[in-house]
Design brief:
Layout: H1 3-23, H2 30-41, H3 48-55, H4 59-71, E1 75-79, E2 87-91, H5 93-113, H6 119-141
Antiparallel strand pairs: 1-2
Length: 142
């Protein structure tokens, strides 16, 4: 693995581990928190396919995460009247009450991590990450 890709992978793992640690006292994981934020910000009905498209993770992984969230009382799944194969994902009051805490934890973590960066360095970093993301998307189309 190239040194840069190895560093990106290592940073991704560290970020996940640190935020998971902070969220553990609320009984949720980083990916569950990200699902809660995505669903809470959405302007319409959310289905599993929406999570699949947004998070770009395997369908089986999303299914497992949703099953745990349903078991833990964070979501309910409601059948769609026009197509019973699709189930709308609805946040419970428990999940909604966590959304502000989640936002705060993630916002504070990001600010702490990037506190030594200038505004220009943050813009450059984001530009490089977006460029890397685009290159990977283009490779996957080949």
């Amino acid at each position: 693995m190239n040194g840069i890709l190895k560093k990106i992978n290592t940073l991704s793992n560290k970020i996940k581990r640190e935020i998971d640690k902070k969220l553990s006292k609320y009984g949720i994981t980083f990916i569950q928190a990200r699902f809660i934020l995505f669903i809470s910000k959405s302007q319409g009905d959310i289905y599993q396919k929406d999570l699949l498209n947004h998070f770009e993770i395997r369908k089986s992984s999303i299914t497992s995460i949703l099953q745990l969230m349903e078991r833990d009382g964070l979501i309910v799944r409601e059948s769609n009247n026009s197509d019973y194969r699709f189930k709308k994902i609805i946040l419970t009051d428990k999940a909604l009450s966590l959304s502000n805490v989640i936002r705060s934890i993630i916002y504070d973590f990001e600010n702490q991590v990037l506190s030594t960066f200038s505004a220009d360095e943050k813009k450059l970093l984001l530009m490089f990450l977006n460029k890397t993301d685009l290159a990977i998307e283009n490779l996957s189309k080949e």
